[in-house]
Structures are given as C-alpha cells and as structure tokens.
Design goal:
There is one protein chain. The protein has 9 helices and 3 strands. The chain has 142 residues and is mainly alpha-helical. The protein has a 3-stranded antiparallel beta sheet.
Length: 142
C-alpha cells in the first residue's frame, strides 16, 4: 500500500467524520449526538466534590469541626479567619449540607456549629490526605 493510498483513506475518513460531526452521526452512520452531549454534560465526581469542599477556608473549617461542636468565636480563633469570611464559609457549608447551626437563645446568645452526617463522612478523607502529605510533602515535616 502506498502513502497516497493511506492519505486518500485518511482524507475520506476525515471527511466522513467532519460531515458526521455536523449531523450528529459517526463515520459508521451511528447517531452520536446524545452520546457526545452526555459526555460533555456529565461532570467528573472528583471535580464536583472539590467545588463543594475545596476552598481553603472550607477545608479549614471542616477540619476544625471534626473535633466536635464549636461556637462561632472558637472557630474564628482556631482558624484565624476574619468574621466576614468565616460567616460566609459557614453559611455555604450549611447550605451544602455539611454543617448544622444551632442557636442558643439564653443570654448571651450563642451560635454553635457542628458537622452533619455528610460532613462527618469526610473524616477518612482528611486522614488519607494527612497520611499522603506526611509521605510526599517533606517540606511540611521540616
């Protein structure tokens, strides 16, 4: 087979593929519109998860709440976050179902935050990340 034969075959296949893409058909005549759309529209679960918990402050707050229920000011001290940032992060985590908020109406009024079952389910993830960091991030141990 000559290089011209290969070039001609590739051009024909490329032409069929190009035409098929415009009509939603593959080179074999199959309809691929739904397949292509579902592949593009389906988010990766890892990326989706990171979007939910992946900001620096969300991770810090989730990690601190692994130790049990905390008042707002305790979290503020433990995380070194400013009040506005911490309030926003706690609202986001509550909306996402990771954190519960409990108000105590007695004087002085206190707001407590704790992990939901969904939030508690992240404990093994934090353990694994910690073990990975000890093994692979030598500068963290220095």
């Amino acid at each position: 087979m000559s290089s011209q034969d290969l070039t001609g075959t590739d051009s024909a296949a490329e032409s069929a593929t190009t035409e098929g893409a415009a009509t939603g058909e593959s080179a074999t005549g199959e309809d691929t519109t739904d397949e292509a759309a579902s592949t593009v529209d389906t988010p990766c679960p890892i990326v989706d998860s990171i979007e939910q918990i992946g900001s620096q402050w969300r991770l810090v707050v989730l990690y601190e709440l692994q130790n049990g229920e905390r008042r707002f000011n305790e979290l503020k001290r433990e995380t070194d976050a400013n009040a506005r940032t911490l309030s926003r992060v706690l609202d986001d985590l509550q909306e996402s179902g990771f954190v519960d908020r409990r108000m105590e109406e007695d004087a002085p009024v206190a707001t407590y935050y704790s992990l939901t079952d969904k939030g508690e389910s992240l404990a093994p993830v934090f353990t694994e990340i910690g073990e990975w960091a000890q093994e692979w991030l030598a500068e963290c141990n220095a």
